[in-house]
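hey
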C-alpha cells in the first residue's frame, strides 16, 4: 500500500444537539437577576397578580419570591432547631427527675438497711441475755 495515496476520508457523523428546554442553570446568589430565564405561565400569572395587587414592579416581586423560599427554609430550620431544644430541655428535666428519684430510693434503702441492722443488733443482744439466763437452768441435774 503506498504511503502517499490519495484516498477520500469518510465523513464523520455530525451530532446536532437539540436545544435544551431550559437554559443551563446559573449560579444563584442574593443579587443575581433572572432576566434570561423562561417563566412558566403559572408563575408569570402569579407574579402578575401579585404585582397588580400591590401596584409595584413585577421584577421586584419575582426577586422577593425567589429569595423567599430560602427564607422560608431557613425559618423552618430555625423552628425545627427550637423544637429540638425544647424537646432536649424536657428530656433533660425528665432525666434529672429520674436521677433524683433513683438517689432518693437508694438513700431510703440505705436507711432501711441501717434500721434493720440496728434491730438485728438489738435482737442479738436480747438473745444473748436470754441465753445467759438459760445457762443457769438445770443445775438440779436435769
Amino acid at each position: 500500500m503506498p504511503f502517499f495515496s490519495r484516498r477520500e476520508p469518510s465523513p464523520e457523523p455530525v451530532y446536532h444537539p437539540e436545544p435544551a428546554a431550559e437554559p443551563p442553570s446559573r449560579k444563584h446568589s442574593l443579587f443575581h437577576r433572572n432576566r434570561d430565564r423562561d417563566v412558566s405561565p403559572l408563575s408569570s400569572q402569579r407574579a402578575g397578580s401579585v404585582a397588580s395587587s400591590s401596584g409595584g414592579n413585577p421584577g421586584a416581586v419575582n426577586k422577593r419570591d425567589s429569595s423567599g423560599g430560602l427564607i422560608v427554609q431557613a425559618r423552618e430550620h430555625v423552628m425545627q432547631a427550637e423544637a429540638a431544644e425544647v424537646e432536649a430541655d424536657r428530656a433533660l428535666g425528665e432525666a434529672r427527675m429520674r436521677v433524683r428519684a433513683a438517689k432518693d430510693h437508694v438513700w431510703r434503702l440505705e436507711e432501711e438497711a441501717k434500721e434493720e441492722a440496728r434491730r438485728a443488733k438489738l435482737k442479738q443482744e436480747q438473745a444473748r441475755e436470754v441465753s445467759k439466763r438459760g445457762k443457769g437452768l438445770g443445775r438440779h441435774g436435769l
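DSSP finds two helices and no strands in the chain. The CA atoms of residues 82 and 88 lie 10 Å apart.
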